[in-house]
Automatic annotation (TrEMBL):
A Pfam family it matches: Metallophos
Biased composition annotated in UniProt, kind: Acidic residues: 655-667
Membrane topology annotation: Single-pass type II membrane protein
Organism of provenance: Sclerotinia borealis (strain F-4128)
Name listed for the protein in its UniProt record: Endopolyphosphatase
Family of the protein in this entry: Belongs to the endopolyphosphatase PPN1 family.
Keywords, sorted A to Z: Glycoprotein, Hydrolase, Membrane, Signal-anchor, Transmembrane, Transmembrane helix, Vacuole
Enzyme type, top EC level: hydrolase
Amino acid sequence: MRINAIYIAVCLLQNSPAVDAKPLGTSQSSLQVPLEDLDPTHHQQASSKRLHGRFLHITDLHQDPHYKAFSSTDEDDACHRGKGTAGTYGAETSDCDTPHTLVDATFKWIKENVRDSVDFVVWTGDSARHDSDEKIPRIQSEVLDTNRKIADKFLETFGDGEDLSIPVISTFGNNDILPHNILLSGPNKWLKTYTDIWDKFIPEEQRHGFQRGGWYYVEVIPKKLAVFSLNTLYFFSHNAAVDGCALRSEPGYEHMEWLRIQLQFMRDRGMKVILTGHVPPARTDSKSLWDETCWQKYTLWLQQYRDIIIGGLYGHMNIDHFMIHDTKDIDLLLFGGKSVAPPRALMDDEFTIQSAGDYLEDLREDWSVLPNPKNLPISMDIGEEDLDYSELYNASDEKKIKKDKKGKKSKKDKKKDKKRKELKKFGGPWGERFIVTNVGPSIVPNYFPTLRVIEYNITGLDDTATWSDSLVESSEQIDWLDQEDEDRFNVDANVDSTDYIYANDDNASAEKKKKHHKDKKKIKNPTPSNPGFIIPSPPSKDAPPGPAYSPQSLTLLGYTQYFANLTYINNLEMTSEESDDEIDTEKWRNGKHGGKVPKDDDPNPRAFHYQVEYDTFTDPIYKLKDMTVKSYLKLAHRIGKYKPQKGDRVKDGDILEEPEVYEDDIENRDNDKKPAYIPEDESIEDPENHDIDAEKKKPKKHKKKKHHRKQKEKNRVWLSFVQRAFVGTLDEDDIKAFDDEFERHAEESLNPIPHRVDDVHGLEL
């Protein structure tokens, strides 16, 4: 029977004293740390006076106009009435929404500490409260009024109240409409109203398109970088008013077509793109948030436009984490009716402690079978300037290796063969088989209020005009609804690519069909027979990798995570109140102070501030060199290991201690700088086999010690990943309980874990 470790964690959390809930590496007396106070040696210095190389990601504010301090956090009261422990700035770790005091204090802190150091803002939706109180149901006027107030906050903070000084890219969440989750195809009253609310955020020439589907983009650095706002409600599996992205009649199909055409438009102009939205494309072997046809198209678009897409930023899930998409899961036959997607259950609309924990466990299991980045024949840390692109791509193609007269491969060809096989596992030396999406934690204090400042590379952009200096001319925008000749984007297509596939299109010209028939022979996998289904052109084979894969201008470098410790700031003194209620991790959460009452009704909060939880530039645990795919592959591989390397091991009681640096860690870092050598007699299919065999050959006297390590030593990186997912609201005992469920994997990790078998319908691009 599967142990519910998350249930145990919540029990421990709610029975622990308030002072025990401390975020990683902080204390309750910690003061706010503005961007300027961080160690400058670990942060990028702006290469010009105009661009700072930073932007803010903020999500899920969920302001509640009915919130009352010292009200009850019970489900029947929802921080709206009764007597309880709802603090001045919110009821942390509960399911109550955000008081206006927290929203006001957050924007005040941003204005004083962040505003003058960022180039743009990504705001990924869900500003209205949840519909969780049957006695005060939500109404349309309240939802829209809340969003107007939040929009005004952005205008006041990043402008003069009338106009913006830097761009803010907005999107709406599943709770910003009524009923929640349900949005009909546009144009409709909701899209029309939000066009008015966000008239300062949406470029004027794109408002017509926004009214039709709720999508738009902003050139935050004119002619260099665009940030796209996607309407993920048309992809959301819980939106019963729509049906995926496969049928032309569906708004999801229309949205994906708009995205494809605009991405090609950006490629033609030499621009790069960041994708943003509310509901992330979360997907495991058993569950998903998006409709499968939308996930398939989105992942295909990401793969084909990997030369211009920098990354994806989303909210909704409230937990701090990242996800890795495998393009081997792309199934083109799904769009021709010749394949059926494996059944996946819907992920919970709103994550509970249990569902979030199960989801993180699923991610770890997926990452445990990732290929080992250390076995790449070409190091993932080698500098871009040292690489010969044409040679590397030739090494990873499917050319047949020449044999000698006896039909045997030479030693040189054998090495090339191994090199080719290793590169194929990653889709090339930069890991282009995989795609990374980041999900930011929320302002609503389901855990602790959190926001994130992300840094990006501005090398070579010294003299670039900023958004406030230059407005994009309408002639440079493209209205996809008026675009009749889609082939205009195919003029410069690579002759070796699949280009556009016109499948069974009776309206296609004879010349197009002839070209399609010729190109079809080059495609190794089956193509869909759905009329009009278009596969975008991939990057040219001799083109350098995009900023998501190789460090260059506009590559994301890292981020600093800020949080507000409401346990410390609210400063509540409480007494216990007997209660027979059991904790149910699948339903309403009363929060860490559930079952208690304040000693007095006189609020005495401390000064409000955000402080640093962690930053990836100095973090000794994640060790993220940057936010490229290869860096995240290394991190995911370490998180997924049930038998971690020496530097990632931790004993019970030492989880929150600073990790030690071992000699083998230094050696591994040195080895990463040179090509990895794979012995002739070592299996490349199981990079862990060599170490496993060595363990099995140890003398018996070491077996007892090895068994002790299995029981007492855990994976520090995984435990830190869990701790950060819940924004430091779990103490050390809670985190250890979280890992108990995985003890059974200690034995399994001694046996070879087979690599995933590629889907027969996968796409070789």
